Amino acid sequence: MVNLIWLLMLAIGIVVAALNGHIESVTTSAMKAAELGVEVAIELIGVMSLWLGLMRLAEEAGLVKGIARIFGPAIRRLFPSLKPDSKALGAIIMNLSANILGLGNAATPFGLKAMQELQKENPTPDVASPAMITFLALNTSCITLIPATIIGVRLKANSVNPTEIIGTTIVATGCAMFMAILVDYLIRRRRKL
Amino acid sequence: MNIIAEISRWAIPLLLLLVPIVAYLRGVPVYESFVEGAEEGFKTGVRILPFLIGMLVAIRVFVDSGALNILSHWLRPLINMLGLDPDFAAIIPLAIMRPLSGSGALGVATQLINEYGPDSYIGRLASTLQGSTDTTFFVLTVYFGSVGIKKYRYALKLGLLADIIGLIVSVWIVTKVFY
User: Which residue intervals define the domain Nucleoside transporter/FeoB GTPase Gate in the entry (chain A) (predicted)?
Assistant: First the structure.
């Protein structure tokens, strides 16, 4: 499915650009996007090194285990396939906390770390495990308490009340998150995963 | 709300202060451990690079070509069919963009907010929608790519389902709260 979507985006984009008579825009777009990819990755390397370094300290000091012990039981219900002493749990909790607080930069390193730990417990290395899918469903629909970026945009656009959308955002993302968790649970139960 | 904003503001400085102190007190060689952990950051960054580039190129070519606008135009009759406000058509490009690209969606949302006004129906809906989910497609390809997963199984369907629920609830709650 991903292969098809990728191909369609690329092919439709090129055909539309040709029909609109600006085929040369495809070249600039593709080159610029490739450059941007490197920029994003380089930026990520910096932030990621910082957070993974700090995470290592927290791990060795026993802090991650402590956090996992406090929040683990609730989170673990969503991940029945995890091993009892799974190291993924701490990273998952850190990722979700960062998402909830709106610290996007910190969320990605913890998320990628969680994926690495989940992969260690995955019996089929090239196929997504149920725990990974649950984690990504949680991750992509996760509540953010303060959508800071969009509030900034509203502020600049002279909104009378820039923060008035916090409530509606939390309701919308809360419902999306709830449905993702519910449907994920139902799929796992039906497929006996 | 102020309390939450304050927590967000203090979270990182406090983590940077407390974690190393506690680790030091518990006998962890703090600097060396930090560096060891940080090394993983580089490897992960390099590993996700091809996935980032692959996705960004396809998304950018698609959006810059004007295909997004054409697709939105085609979807307009759907809005009439559903009996929604015709104004609502303005939100379609954002709804399509949201699962694909974070910065792309932010661009579309910013444009809508400035064009219709932050306190208009479209402005409020765009704001709510922007915060309602993350970029499903992007997160999936990068996260799975970073550990070498090739078969996503039902992950994409689940993520897109959450996006659609987010869209429907956004429309409903914004209408309900503000109108």
Answer: 42-151
Q: How far apart are CA B165 and CA A45, in angstroms?
A: 33
User: Who contacts A28 (Cβ-Cβ below 8 Å, separation ≥6)?
Assistant: B64
- Interface list for B 27-56 with A (CB within 8 A): 28, 30, 33-42, 44-46, 48-49, 52-56
Q: Residue B89 pLDDT > 80, yes or no?
A: yes
Q: How far is CA B60 from CA A54, A82, B18, in A?
A: 34, 38, 41
A-contacting residues in B 122-151 (Cβ below 8 Å): 123-124, 127-137, 139-141, 143-144, 146-151
The residue among B146, B147, B145, B68 whose CA lies nearest residue B100 is B68
AA identity, residue A6: W
Q: How far apart are CA B6 and CA B173, in angstroms?
A: 27
Q: Is A186 exposed, middle or buried (0-12, 13-18, 19+ CB in 10 A)?
A: exposed
* A88 in reach of chain B (CB within 8 A): no
Residues of chain A with pLDDT under 50: none
Q: How far is Cα A37 from Cα A43, in angstroms, rounded to an integer? A: 10
Q: Give the alpha-carbon dihedral of B173, B175, B178, B179, to 10 degrees.
A: -150
Q: What is the model's pLDDT at position B73?
A: 85
Q: Is pLDDT at B83 greater than 80 in this prediction?
A: no
What crossing angle do the helices spanning B2-25 and B30-64 adopt, rounded to 10°? 140
Domain spans of chain A, in order of start: 30-190
The three-class DSSP label of residue B151 is strand
Gyration radius of chain B's alpha carbons: 21
Output the pLDDT for position A14: 96
Cβ proximity of A148 and B4 under 8 Å: no
- Summarised one tens digit per residue, pLDDT across range B42-62 is 888 888 899 889 988 998 999
ipTM: 0.88
β-strand partners of A127: B151
Q: How far is B81 from chain A (nearest CA, A)?
A: 23
- Whether the model clears a pTM of 0.90, i.e. scores above it, the answer is no
- CA distance, residue A30 to nearest chain B CA (Å): 5
